[in-house]
Here is the input.
Amino acid sequence: MTPEEFRRAGYAVVDWIADYWTTLGQRPVTSAEPPGALAAELPDGPTAHGEPVDAVLADLDRLVAPRLTHWQHPGFFGYFPANTSGPSVLGDLVSSGLGVQGMLWATGPACTELETAMLDWLADLMDLPERFRSTGAGGGVIQDSASSATLVATLAALHRAGDGRWRAAGVDRRYRAYTSTHGHSSIEKAARIAGLGGDGVRQVEVDPATQALRPEALRAAIEADRAAGDVPAIVVATIGTTSTTAVDPLPEIGRICAEYGIWLHVDAAYAGSAAVCPELRWSHAGLEYADSYCFDPHKWLLTGFDCDAFWVADSGELIEALTVLPEYLRNTATESGAVIDYRDWQVPLGRRFRALKLWFVLRWYGVEGLRAHIRSGVALAARFADRVRADDRFELAAPHPFSLVCFRLLGDDAANAELLARVNATGRVHLTHTRVDGRYTLRLAVGSPHTTAAHVDEAWDLLAGTAAR
Amino acid sequence: MTPEEFRRAGYAVVDWIADYWTTLGQRPVTSAEPPGALAAELPDGPTAHGEPVDAVLADLDRLVAPRLTHWQHPGFFGYFPANTSGPSVLGDLVSSGLGVQGMLWATGPACTELETAMLDWLADLMDLPERFRSTGAGGGVIQDSASSATLVATLAALHRAGDGRWRAAGVDRRYRAYTSTHGHSSIEKAARIAGLGGDGVRQVEVDPATQALRPEALRAAIEADRAAGDVPAIVVATIGTTSTTAVDPLPEIGRICAEYGIWLHVDAAYAGSAAVCPELRWSHAGLEYADSYCFDPHKWLLTGFDCDAFWVADSGELIEALTVLPEYLRNTATESGAVIDYRDWQVPLGRRFRALKLWFVLRWYGVEGLRAHIRSGVALAARFADRVRADDRFELAAPHPFSLVCFRLLGDDAANAELLARVNATGRVHLTHTRVDGRYTLRLAVGSPHTTAAHVDEAWDLLAGTAAR
Here is the structure.
């Protein structure tokens, strides 16, 4: 494809996206078709001599778009949001066009330096502890997801716990990881990947009133393991759990970790974005105890997946844990020690120029634009919670400090599952569920910049109306 | 940003990329600026109220582009290529605009089904063994990189070796991984991540004539480990090693793995693309023994990073190794067992709609277009090798079955390092180096669709001319 062919086809694709966003609210949020519907309509392979882009775009409309779950839809309230924005898409488009490999500083100096700068910008914007800035021993990096951030934090913690033996000799299965019973599934997955097995993870009980980890239960679990000869290696605390956005008490947890010399990783995948607003920074109190911290701009900060922002207080430990230097990657810049080679901060070797989308987003919205977005989500969630509170057929299942509301119909689990299925079947909204204290609970998560009060009210009207029937 | 603002800015970014590609050959391939040059020119943070896209594009020109290593430059011959193409950029742009999360079938049915179909298309196109098709127990998935493919293959192998105990009880440090001394650094990294430690990897010697793994040495290493009470768990064979594109003898290695019940993973990160050409499929002989296989369309098949195509013969083992199912991800489609949830095939939970870029590339180029691209690279490498062969100051350091040529100036390592530095300093070309049999060796890797005979000849003229001086 020549640059001129790309220019013409590029305009067409930009138009396609602009039109998609314009008409998104009129589409069903999810597809009602059964598994295999798309597969059945695809040919068995590519043609011998190629096809024009127009043909592909026509199939995108005819075959693909109708079989999607539309995550950018203003009526999408499922899981946690994964919203993008115009500037994010444009930043990523530049990244695709440049096609730069950022594995080493030498393979893309600006790719590395812009990433370091964007993570410092974010740290300032969120008032993160000084220890995470690149000006000291710490620094930030973009991971694909919070799952990967938790994995590399776990590996760095094992390296530390192993006193230098882990790199060569492997993991000691007596090492233990701790999180609350509402810690994300990626914590168990990271422990399994790292060779600890699921048995290596202690799921510490939560306070029923807050759904947050109980520090005294954490201390008891650590003491019991130590008494049994096991070695506490990492605690993963959460700011904004996936089920209910509970906030674990970092100051108490942090003091325990400091006392026992345990790596503290803080997973704020969703709720971290809230810290751009000064009035929501209470959620990050105690973060100065953390050895590592991450949040996902790709969840609630208008940046397209994949963009997890991950910081460590001591990048040296992380690099030692992960680096392998073959001859074909040696270069004078690396050997000078004056540069960052981000390949040593992550699992894969290769990496895209993901800092560009953050740069575009931060510059387009500015500080106040980002705050306005977060505040809108919090306000819409509060508006929805008020409706729930005012209807005595419903109850709130947990506090809603951010933009997620957990609620249920007074009644059994089956009634709530039925309500969810019926409301989602309208195609107007999409909600998901969790369990709180063992009970089936509906979740409404606001995050799209296109979601307005009217969309939240429609969701409530559908829920209330369906409950009435 | 409204859809109409996006449309206008989108055209501008498309123009920026088309212009970048048009002028790329006139830019220096690499930047000569020292570390910190970009960082010193960036402001300390975003503005309060946002800026227009034009301002960001101006800084892209002024600050970022001059500090890049231009991987899409026709004179870029370093590492392995990581080329993109117009249709790939457009497919990824659609993916960014849709902003779909493909972690579960339910969260993006078409995202999952198109990915399965594209991996089956590729398997057909490359004539991969039947066991990797989704129609049986096997199937393919897109990973971010071959590093991640090697990691998940290692985890599945440990799960198998552990007879079901690995998931809960963790890794047994007696498990062993095997590769040649030229296996990629990601193999050691995967072993370290998985808790085996670097000591868990046996680097098996190569045949000096071919730089390929010696099967009898592999057998001896396995026997020695078994005699010592260790447990051989995985062999990683390579089609196209990073240093010299050596091809390990899969038929012999495969029979050894079958005999001892060891997982065989085949890493064809770069050279796998060659299999789209029937005349290059000799390199994949013996692949029917493999439990898993991967190659990177983002290296040599015109698809932008990140796109590693990874297949397993038994997806059930991989899924068992990696799945964790929390309540908030439960859904009726998953429970029906009729769908693929690709989150269980990879480390991260979230995933982008990466199949779109493959779909755009396969349809735009067609079968013959892709073959022509591979054949062009092989022919250009052969042309360059002929120049080396014809100049008695130089020697070829290894066979060149694909599009990489390894060569050196007759002389010591320092002379070759000096030659590389001087040629790269011209900014016209960029080559990298490796060591073959301990000796410093230059590598010229062809891959860009923009690279022509004239660019390869220019590279040779620079090398020969510099050597003369």
